[in-house]
Amino acid sequence: MRQPIYLDYNASAPLRPEAAECISALMGPARNPSSIHSFGRNAKQIVEKARTQLAELTSGNPNGFMFTSGGTEANNTALLGFEKVITCITEHDAVLAARPDAEKIGVGADGEINLGELEAQIQKAKNGGGEIVVSVMLVNNETGRIQPIEKLLEICQVYKVVFHSDMVQALGKIPIHLDKWSESGLSMASFSAHKIGGPPGVGALWVTAGRQVTQLIKGGGQEKGRRSGTENIYGIAGFGAAAKSVANWQSHAKNWTEWRSNFVSKLQRAYPEIQVTTRDAQCVNNTISLLLPAIPAQIAVMSLDMDGFAISSGAACSSGKVQESHVIRAMGFGVQSNHVVRISFGWENTEDDISALADAIIALYKRSKEK
Amino acid sequence: MSVYIPNSLGILKPVEKTRVVVAMSGGVDSSVVAALLKHEGYEVVGITLQLYDHGEAVQAKGACCAGADIHDARLVAARINIPHYVLDYETLFKQQVMDDFADSYLAGHTPIPCVKCNQTVKFKDLLSMAKELGADCLATGHYVQRELRNGYACLRRGIDTQKDQSYFLFATTPEQLDFLRFPLGSMTKNETRQLANRFELSVTYKPDSQDICFVPNGRYGDVVRRLRPGAITPGIIRHLDGRILGKHQGVIDYTIGQRRGLGIGGRKEDVEENSPLYVVDINPEVHEVIVGPKSALACRDVYLDEVNWLLPSILDDKKGNAEGIEVFVKLRNTASPSSAKLFFNAKHSAHLVLENPEYGIAKGQAGVIYDGNDAALMLGGGWISSAPSSVI
Fold it and tell me: Which domains does chain B show, CATH number per domain?
């Protein structure tokens, strides 16, 4: 049997060769960036280099980055200490579960946050007093939907509330302008290494100059007192190398928009009822959220896995259980929420992979319809 | 065109082209089923159902949503190298099994949630999912034998009578049975453990589960209280002769035949009363628990409803027999089959007359009927709708 085809980059991307090379070259000597001696100084340099590489990719001040154990920790840290949190119903669990007390703003049928509702909630929260944070992701992990960050910033500036954005799925896929957005009121942004070909277990929270964050992990005061614990130096170096390598696959990514539309056309020629849940909304071009009315998502994911295609439905819980997507349900798909799968591709894929997946879905669809 | 003889699962395909979904609970039995079939060369797909929030069930705050059993199932699947999926059946399980469990206790009955689970979640939903996955059959780790008689699948008790699980499978329909396989039916538990050891499965020495899966500590009353807060009313404990002997916190804490923990004492002055008292009846409408001597539990007539016939043809032959059909019947899982005469009321209800009285038969339990000439062959079974005392 041929090698399985991996089409679940939004869950985790394969390690970029540049990151692998960088990490393996470092492995060996003791490297504690807090040590006074030459080994320590050398380690410190490695961390700072990664910070710069990440800053270049995101057009942000390198000093704003504090490294974390991943996007989840970055989100948890960002939302600590606020009296009130206003977020979006389609956020990742790393935000929703971090602040279960948050007000959750709904989305339209195409997945865009309801801006009117957001404004109303901010006004309501303002009456209560206490510091308010609005947290809205830039790109949705399940649908690829891009949220209108400029408009969100505008609203938050008008009401003078703190704005945080989970940019984990945006990194490497769309341009990010931290410094520019910071001028319009962006306070914090979360990132994760393994979504762009860095190693898993490392992420970063970017914090605008002058803003304090509340420590989630206390101890030796690393990362300028913002996050304690000896730095995950291999992870951080790999994160930096992966950030730098984005430029190496950008030209490859230019084709994805066309692949995406060819893939959808092929499916719809066979079965017009198959739809993209985000319709024509602005999405990152590696992600397809696909409604398969005749096949429950978990059947599709399992069957395609057995056929050698790795795709997903919703975000995976730690137990790996297949469960319904809160994102798709929030978009108003009702009982059909159980029929949506996510395909997300990346630099190792070819158009043949995606075309083969379309064939496999059509075959599965046919089998299901014949029953 | 190739012609195949049936493989070990009775399917006309070569083993490597036969896709088998194995319902893996994380216990030793279903793990061995998966390992055995994989060893034989079948295309095995493991599925584990997450049925309830483990953390909530054991009341451990912050426990992982998936319990140790799911973890064990994953380890086994990885060990034997099969695709394995964990599916979220929490909502379905709550609706179809746990709610019924709670309501049944509130009605003064003693439910068997394992049968409901087989009837609904496992053999309806999981089975149809297996079909959708293109599987040729669904295999489980039940100790029960499936055999073909005149082309129809029927059930026999497991060879290991200590482990026989036919009682829990009486509600299996012929269509379901067509698609089901029970590879452990002809094995003893000891043999299963030996196989687990041979396949080097991490669950080889895992203890057998004793309780209802979502009542891990055996305190079912706590579960009912959590599921039905406010629905539980305290009441009185009354003797059959009419005297009030004490109070109770809810009929759900009592089952027919229960002797211990009745919460009534101080009857020493009454010599006649020194013989132990048992719960002989539960009256949920007036929240009364009725106690009496063991003799009051004796019962010879048992009425069943929602009867499922696995071998209807055998019954057809004898339907005219006004004197009843000689059968064996099990009125609880742990009892050995006893002799009885079977009379039909209607297609899905039956009346059993026991040769010797039995004690402590509870509504909500099952009456499972076996052939009078072949005590291992299951004819069918139903839910006990009434079992009047033969002395009152």
Answer: 15-220 (3.40.50.620), 233-292 (2.30.30.280), 297-386 (2.40.30.10)
Q: Can you give the three-state secondary structure of chain B, one letter per residue?
A: CCCCCCCCCCCCCCHHHCEEEEECCCCHHHHHHHHHHHHHCCEEEEEEEECCCHHHHCCCCCCCCCCHHHHHHHHHHHHHCCCEEEEECHHHHHHHHHHHHHHHHHCCCCCCHHHHHHHHHHHHHHHHHHHHCCCCEEECCCCEEEEEECCEEEEEECCCCCCCCHHHHCCCCHHHHHHEECCCCCCCHHHHHHHHHHCCCCCCCCCCCCCCCCCCCCCHHHHHHHHCCCCCCCEEEEECCCCEEEEECCHHHCCCCCCCCCCCCCCCCCHHHHCCCEEEEEECCCCEEEEECHHHHEEEEEEEEEEEECCHHHHHHHCCCCCCEEEEEECCCCCCCEEEEEEEEECCEEEEEEEEEEECCCCCCEEEEEECCCCCEEEEEEEEEECCCCCC
Give the number of other CB atoms < 10 A from CB of residue A318.
8
A317 flagged as catalytic? yes
- Closest residue, chain A, to B67 (C-alpha): A319
A303 contacts B86? CB cut-off 8 A: no
Q: Is B70 on the interface with A (CB under 8 A)?
A: yes
Q: Running DSSP on this structure, what letter comes out for residue A113?
A: B
User: B83: which chain A residues are within 8 Å (Cβ-Cβ)?
Assistant: 302, 305-306
Percent of chain A scored above 70 by pLDDT? Answer: 97
How far is B284 from B281, CA to CA, in rounded Å?
A: 10
Q: What is the interface pTM, i.e. ipTM, of the complex?
A: 0.83
Catalytic residue among A22, A88, A156, A317: A317
Q: Pick from A93, A319, A326 the residue to mutate for testing the B interface (most B CBs within 10 Å).
A: A319
Report whether pLDDT(A319) > 60: no
B68 min Cα distance to partner chain A (Å): 11
Residue B377: count other Cβ atoms within 10 Å of its Cβ. 22
Nearest-by-Cβ selection for A321 from B50, B129, B131: B50
Q: Sketch out chain A's domains with CATH numbers.
A: 5-14+252-370 (3.90.1150.10), 17-248 (3.40.640.10)
pLDDT digits (tens, 9 = 90+) for A266-298: 999 999 999 999 999 999 999 999 999 999 998
What tokens were used for B228? 């039905």
Nearest CA in chain B to A321: B86
Residue B53 structure tokens: 């929030």
Of B66, B133, B134, the CB nearest to A319: B66
Partners of residue A307 in chain B, C-beta under 8 Å: none
